[in-house]
Please model this.
Amino acid sequence: MIWTIVFAILLFSLIIFVHELGHFLTARLFRVKVHEFALGMGPKIFSWEKGETTYSLRAIPVGGFCSMEGEDERSENEGSFSAKPWWQKLIILAAGAGMNIVLGFLIFIIFVSVFYQGSGIPTTTVDTVIEQSALYGELLPGDKIVAINDTTVNIKRDIDFAMQRCGGGECTLTVKRDGEKLNFRFKPLAAQYTDGSPAYLIGINSAMKKVGVVSVVREAFYQTIWMGKVVFVSLGMLISGEVGVGEMSGPVGVVDAMNSAVTDAASSAPAGQGLMAGLLALLSLASFISVNIGIMNLLPIPALDGGRIFFVIIEAIRRKPIPPEKEGIVHFIGLVLLMGLMLFATWNDIMRLISRF
Model:
């Protein structure tokens, strides 16, 4: 568990560093004065100055910031954030989240390269159809699955995700055979995942392709898109009430999920491969967390980058900025609410841990 905590701290530090680096690089690109680039919060451990900027490492390894001239107040300085045109502000604000998504993509390139090295990468092309499948005798080897319920699929994980969304009801499967698209209505094959949760399957074995530069980059790219899709679907389920607020997790829950992923992967791996399986599980989860944080930061919520982007869009429409002091009040209220939500999620995590004992 201790090593999982260490990994979690290092991971979040990397995610925060990359996020703030996105803001910093784009700010410098547009000649915005950066007062301080900090990793961590609280008192400074050490710092140094270069040019106009102070670079610092702070005591609490959570958070970080890129403090820009005129970010939260009016400034007449031509190098201030507030003096820049709206489109430059938009790029600077979105760059942090964009860097997180890119980081998730790069981590997944490493994961795919190692994880699929021996077996090959599963595709959306049918290799064999099992006899229990409702489509046995209708699907043929070589059929390429292109959509499920009119939702496009690009990788095997898209198929699994679409089938879970379909549930136990009838699904429509679209395949491409000899250049022609064919549609099949079928009832999924019911099964169970290793944790006992229900699984809904087409009932096929996928054809595999060799691990190569192009195939790895393609798989990592669509895996990153898939992770973004999961985030939006999860948010939709939370808003609709399909998933309760009590199921939200904070930092404690993330560390617990990492520990469970490592333990499960290591225990199910062949003898002598437990360590590698655990590391790969951590890489996969790290990629998902990075993409998740990137997307969440783009939501139009006050205090997040997305909330600031929302105000910049209003500025672009009305052709003049919102008074910084008024915008600051909105972001402060948003920050307080977010902190409350974080404390609530952390309390849920602790209660779930206690309930196990």
Remarks:
- The CA atoms of residues 141 and 235 lie 37 Å apart.
